[in-house]
């Protein structure tokens, strides 16, 4: 498995599920599913940096990184593996997606990072609206 600094961000160029024209994150309903939409300002380079500096999460009992969490302008982003340990695809995090709650250690560190970047209000608003 590669080091996290060598992971690749998989933008998913053949699919546009998480893309939109707004420079804010949000969600839209598509059929009976809710789809996260990313800030339009997140370039491939920014996404790559968020992935490389993100917080790793392994499911209990697993050695495989199942999710990577980062914060961008106060919004929590989650990346899931497209090829575990090699490439990941990210999208805005929403707490009611059928997965366990955001681990407390990850929430604390993301909050700290958001505060450091001057986006503590936006982070708090995101948690209030989507956790």
Keywords:
131 residues, alpha+beta, two-stranded antiparallel sheet, 26% helix, 30% strand
Write out the strand line-up for the largest beta sheet, numbering strands in chain order. 1-7-6-5-4
- What structural class do helix, strand and pairing data support? alpha+beta
Question: Distance between the terminal alpha carbons, to the nearest Å?
Answer: 32 Å
Q: Could you describe the largest sheet, including whether it forms a barrel?
A: 5 strands, mixed
Question: What order do the SSEs take from the amino end to the carboxyl end, as H and E?
Answer: EEEHEEEEHH
The count of DSSP E runs of length 2 or more, i.e. the number of strands, is 7
Shape: globular
Radius of gyration: 14 Å
- The helix fraction, in percent, is 25-40%
How many individual helices? 3
Q: Poorly predicted ranges (pLDDT <50, ≥5 residues)?
A: none
Overall mean pLDDT stands at 89
How many distinct domains? 1
Describe the structure.
The chain is α+β, with helices and mostly antiparallel strands. It has one domain. The chain has 3 helices and 7 strands; from the N terminus they run βββαββββαα. The strands form 2 sheets. The chain has a 5-stranded mixed sheet. Strand 4 and strand 5 form a beta hairpin.
Topology of helices and strands:
Layout: E1 8-9, E2 26-30, E3 33-37, H1 44-53, E4 55-58, E5 65-72, E6 75-83, E7 87-92, H2 104-116, H3 120-130
Parallel strand pairs: 1-7
Antiparallel strand pairs: 2-3, 4-5, 5-6, 6-7
Helix pairs in contact: 2-3
């Amino acid at each position: 498995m590669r080091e996290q600094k060598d992971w690749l961000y998989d933008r998913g160029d053949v699919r546009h599920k998480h893309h939109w024209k707004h420079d804010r994150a949000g969600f839209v309903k598509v059929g009976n599913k809710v789809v996260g939409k990313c800030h339009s300002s997140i370039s491939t380079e920014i996404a790559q940096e968020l992935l490389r500096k993100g917080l790793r999460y392994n499911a209990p009992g697993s050695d495989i990184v199942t999710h990577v969490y980062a914060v961008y302008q106060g919004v929590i982003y989650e990346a899931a593996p497209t090829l575990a340990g090699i490439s990941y695809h990210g999208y805005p995090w929403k707490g009611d997606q059928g997965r366990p709650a955001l681990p407390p250690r990850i929430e604390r560190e993301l909050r700290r990072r958001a505060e450091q970047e001057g986006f503590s209000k936006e982070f708090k608003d995101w948690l209030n609206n989507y956790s």
